[in-house]
Automatic annotation (TrEMBL):
Superkingdom, natural source: Bacteria
GO cellular component: plasma membrane
Domain Anti-sigma K factor RskA C-terminal: 96-216
Designated name of the protein: Anti-sigma factor
InterPro entries in the record: RskA_C
Length: 225
């Protein structure tokens, strides 16, 4: 059933573009889009917008263990999957899908979009986003967990950013496990496209110096919206 609420309809279309529905639901939505000119136009807007935005993202190679797992589950040779996943077209599609997920997580579409967004992922795990960062037009930053992650309790998780490699990383404070964080613009400072953000595992109370000392848990770069 197609919802009557405009926001729910927009969210439904976004999910449809992403391919999150089962075949029966997709058929129902396709029939609706064929009859509703405004809904069809919105679906086209989603596709064009996110495919264009995906050009901002750089592809990252998948780890070899993931190749083997994909090949094992699909029953094909790993070399065939590698050829598919090294295709720029496939990567643009995957990147676009990830951006649609980001848009869905941002909340109702009528709210002002952030100036920058960052998806923090575990190193080498491109398909496993752990945290989302958004920077509003006013410069305030919001860090939101996307998954449950277990950390050693005798350690702290610290949030860092790197804008200028010559100056090195700068701490944005400690992060409570599984808790969202809001950081004011005065503490965040200027944010630029491509700026690095990361979460590291540190001793209790955080890094003893002004640089990360522990392993990187999640990392990502800012993308301008």
């Amino acid at each position: 059933m197609i919802p009557d609420d405009p926001q729910e309809r927009q969210l439904l279309i976004a999910e449809h573009v992403l391919g999150l529905h089962d075949p029966q639901r997709r058929q129902e939505i396709d029939a609706w889009l064929a009859q509703d000119e405004e809904a069809s136009r919105l679906a086209g807007h989603w596709q064009e917008h996110w495919l264009g935005a995906a050009e901002l993202l750089e592809p990252a190679p998948l780890p070899s263990r993931l190749w083997r797992r994909i090949a094992r589950q699909a029953g094909v040779a790993p070399s065939r999957w590698q050829w598919v996943w090294q295709s720029p077209v496939v990567w643009r599609t995957v990147s676009a899908s990830l951006l649609v997920v980001v848009a869905l997580l941002l909340g109702p579409l009528r709210q002002p979009a952030p100036v920058y967004t960052v998806i923090l992922q575990a190193p080498g795990e491109a398909a496993a986003p752990g945290w989302r960062v958004t920077v509003s037009a006013s410069g305030d930053l919001q860090l939101i967990p996307l998954q449950e992650v277990a950390y050693p309790r005798q350690h702290s998780v610290q949030f860092w950013t790197l804008q200028d490699p010559a100056r090195g990383p700068r701490s944005l404070g400690l992060v409570e496990r599984g808790q969202p964080v809001v950081i004011p613009a005065s503490q965040v400072g200027e944010v630029k496209s491509g700026q690095l953000f990361e979460l590291t595992l540190e001793p209790p109370g955080g890094s003893p110096g002004d640089r990360p000392t522990g392993p990187v848990l999640f990392i990502g770069r800012a993308v301008a919206l």
